[in-house]
Structures are given as structure tokens and as C-alpha cells.
Amino acid sequence: MNAVVKKLALAVGMLVLASCTTSQTSTSVQSAPTANASNSEIVPTIKIDGSSTVFPITEAIAKQYQANPSTKAQVSVNISGTSGGFEKFCAGQTDISNASRPISTKEMEACKNNNIQYVEIPVAFDALSVVVNPQNDWAKDITVEELKKMWEPAAEGKITRWNQVRASWPDRPLILFGAGEKSGTFDYFTEATVGKAKASRKDYTASEDDEVLADGISKDPNALGYFGYAYYKEHKSKLKVLGVDNGKGAVEPSPEAVHQNKYKPLARPLFIYVNPYTAQKHHVYEFVNFYLKKAPQVSDSVGYVSLPQEIYQIGVVHLNKGKVGTVFGGEAQLDLTIGQLLQKQKQF
User: Fold this and answer.
1) How many domains does the chain contain in total?
2) Which are the contacts of 204, defined by CB distance < 8 A and separation ≥ 6?
3) Who's near 196: CB < 8 A, 6+ residues apart?
4) How far apart are CA 276 and CA 287, in angstroms?
5) Any idea what the CATH number is for the domain that residue 69 is in?
6) Which of 41, 156, 209, 292 is the most exposed place for a label (fewest CB within 10 A)?
7) What angle do CA 302, 181, 339 make, to 5 degrees?
């Protein structure tokens, strides 16, 4: 009898021990959630979408932010173009919108209808770049008028060879790559070259993802395309940049040309738009304050032009005081200089 009792007691003890071990393991996992945890209340996600041009800045800063072990939020950064990003932002689907142009009147109205407000924050300057394949040995520069001749709606199906643009260029096919219709780069480029935003021929390879454009141009000796300066810098070994002549001589894109106000009309500011009333307000504010601290160094490192420190500091003040709205009135401003941008921010 005693032997039986001892065996039963031993069996019960083993079950209790197993039960305690299982309980302790489960508690340990719950008390130390990882970045992959599915419980959004424990690990909130800051949702960012929009411009592929601004993407390299935001992605790099997001990686630095999440590298800190004390960070309690994930950052999701996606690309759908500036217009596509504003569609999601004004519907309340994202916390931050990357934009390569100011918010438009149509987007302002969409945000208003959905009770979405926004803090407009400039983060860098870009030198929108016109590039060709390195095997192109005939084009070294291009005029704004020639860009119009290539890209205006009337060129569709008609301007299809290089010598139709400039007589000294060879009789070779003209293969075009450019921003998609939801891209802020598309809006800005068409307004700066053709004279009207969104006015463009449609018989070209279009994408909101600049990596797709860079890859296509690098594979076709007859190609020409345009995108943000950072993508040219990243793929410099397999692309050739053209100087742009606005009537005062050809100028290649560079930080120096932007600072000296010589790269016109393709120099432009880049932005993030922040929803100040997001449900995850604390985490979004923490991230954007971090963003503005890191933006100068990161903007330069990825290939854009950093702004004066004063502009970033004004951005911090606007963010933390909830200064909502835009200083652009729903329109891009061509030939805007960094100094003029600073004045706008001061007067906001």
C-alpha cells in the first residue's frame, strides 16, 4: 500500500512540476514581446506610405529608430506614390505621408471631409535628375524645351526617335521611363517642363517605384528617364546624368547647384505630413521628433540636400505645438529656393 501511495505521490509531483514549467515559459513570452508580436496594443505600428523619392530618407531613419532596444513601436514604410500616399493619409489609414510635392487642393478637401488634419514638415531638397544609359554617347545635356518636346501629350506616338528631339542626335528609338500618375515627381516634372501638372504623353514605362525606372534605363541604350537625385546617386555606376539647360547653360544636378540656386526648374523640397491626432499619438510624436533630429545627416547620406538646421527646428516647434495646415495653398512652387522655403516656414 505504501509503495502505491509513494508512486501516486511521485506521479502527481511530476505533473505539478510540468504544469509549473509550462506556465512559467508562457508568462516569459508574454512579458517580453518581440518586434514581431501580433498584439498591436503591446507593439503599436506607425504606418507610413507615399513618395518613393522620400522613401530612402524615411526608411533609413526608421531603421535607426527601431535599432534602439527601448523603442516600443514598429515602423512600416511603404511606397504608393505621393498621390497614393495622400489617398491613404486623408482616409485615416496612415499616420505619416511621404510627399515629393505639397498637398494639393483636392487632397486638402479630402482630408477636411474626413476630419484629418496634418502638420506639414519639409525634410530635404531634391535635384530631380534626367538620366540615360551609359552607352548613350550622344546626349550630354538637354534643354527644358527639349524635355517638353519629349514629354508633352502631343508627343505621344509622334516623337519616337532621338533625332526628332535634336537634329544632331542619332536616328535611334527613344525609349522613355518616368514616374507614374500617382507620383509627386510626375506632378512636379510635368509642371516644370510641360507647363501643366499631370500633362504628359502616356506611351512610356511608368512606375511609382524609382528602382523599377533605374533598372529599366540601365538595361536599354536608347532609354531616357527621370527621378529623384538619390536614385541616380545610388545607381551612378550604371546610369549617366544629363545637364539641364533652362536658358542659362546646362547644369548637372548636385547639392552645390541646389544651394547656389542654379539647378532650375528641377530643384524642389521634400516633405512628410503628420497626422497629429492619430490613435498612437505618443509613438508617432516620438518618432517624428527623432526623424527631425536625424534628417540632416540622413538626407545628405542618401543623396539629397539637407536643409538649414533652423528649418528642422521650426518643424519640431510646429509638430509639438500642433501647427496644422500648409503654406503652399495646394500648389507646387517652381524655382523655390531653400532660403524662400525658410521664410515660408518662419511666416507659417
Assistant:
1) 2
2) 176, 177, 178
3) 190
4) 12
5) 3.40.190.10
6) 41
7) 45
